Amino acid sequence: MTQLKPTLVLACVVVTMALAGVARADPPAACWSAAALAGRPDEVAKHRPGPSDQVSVPQASPPNASVASPGSGVVRRVVPRDRRKLVALTFDLCEGSGEVAGYDGAIVDRLRALKVPATFFMGGRWAQSHEERAMQLLADPLFEVGDHTYDHADLAHADAARIDLEIARTEAVIGGLSARLAKTCPAAGLPPKTRLFRFPYGACGAEGPAAVRAAGLVPIQWDVVSGDPSGVAAAPMARGVLGEVKPGSIIVMHANGRGRHTAEALATIIPQLRARGYEFVTVSDLMAAGRPETSGACFIEHPGDTARYDHPKAVPTKTKGAGAMPTPSSE
Ligand SMILES: [Zn+2]
After folding, report:
1. CA distances (Å), origin 40, targets 31, 57, 130
2. How far is the CA of 152 from the centre of ligand 1 (A)?
3. Does domain 72-325 have CATH number 3.20.20.370?
């Protein structure tokens, strides 16, 4: 009886496993180890930039030739058809100039573990200083990535040209990472082009929403503010969110380390909403499932409340804020 060579046996095992689907995993697990995907505590806090953190501002792509997005105003919520109990969790990944923001991996780990779809509004600078994390999020079919400007610009007084520049720079960064991902992680393929936009600080001027739509993106805000940068503890944050969610709600949170107790609050929010019959979807899936409720003006919780960012010394009072940051530059 002839003996099979060990290499042949190994090859047979690999082929059998591949056919059985054992050796193949969905992205991003196909391209990163579990350890490389898991969040690390040392990534959460922001740090001041050092020499290795210097990033160069990318060349803006030529003017966006995409078709303008229909509609007007900023989306705050969606009214789902047939009163379906859908809800969208959104997480901002903000990073301004002169800082390196964090990555709150505990949030992403929890979403993956519980298979909760979510939308991340990613800043261009954040993506540059967190390339690997950005590609992991882009690779994950559970998640959708939107544009949160290049350097977390306060666009309250911006004209269309300024908004175009922010979008073009961000798309240059995210587009570059998407192309790299398609090469290095074929299982992920080329991620879909970003179609969603979120104004930093929840602030926009009169021209803002139309300028974003002319560039082919849809401006997305929220109707439920978690207040996670304010330091509110997980239990009251969860109570607040659970008290405000209705079918079609869009919830704003932060995954750049600026949100505090966010992952802990999600441990309550996710199972409780599911127990009430809610299904988590990305913002694009939410919009496809109903009629967007829009507003011509941007605001955090009440019209006019973003004006506090025009006066850095003003102290926020009652609003929980989309960031609850004292000044735009510090968020
Ligand atoms: Zn932000």
Report:
1. 18, 27, 13
2. 6
3. yes
| Pairing, β 279-280 against β 86-93 | parallel
Taking only the tens place, the pLDDT of each residue in 230-246 is: 999 999 999 999 999 99
List pLDDT tens digits, range 243-278: 999 999 999 999 999 999 999 999 999 999 999 999
Q: What are the extents of the domains in the chain?
A: 72-325
Cis peptide before 6 (omega within 30 of 0): no
Give dist(CA 27, CA 181) in Å, integer.
11
Residue (of 125, 130, 122) closest to 148 by Cα position: 122
CA of 300 to the centre of ligand 1 (A): 12
Distance 157 CA to ligand 1 centre (A): 17
Q: What is the pLDDT of residues 29-82, one digit of tens each?
A: 999 999 999 999 999 987 766 655 566 777 766 555 568 888 999 999 999 999
- The pTM score is 0.86
CA 93 – ligand 1 centroid, Å: 6
- Ligand 1 centroid–CA 167 distance in Å is 14
Burial of residue 188 (CB within 10 Å: 0-12, 13-18, 19+) is buried
Tokens 């599911």 -> residue: 274
- Rounded to whole angstroms, how far apart are CA atoms 225 and 53? 31
Sign of the dihedral defined by the CA atoms of residues 66, 67, 71, 73, in that order: positive
Phi, psi torsion values for 268, nearest 5 degrees: -95, -45
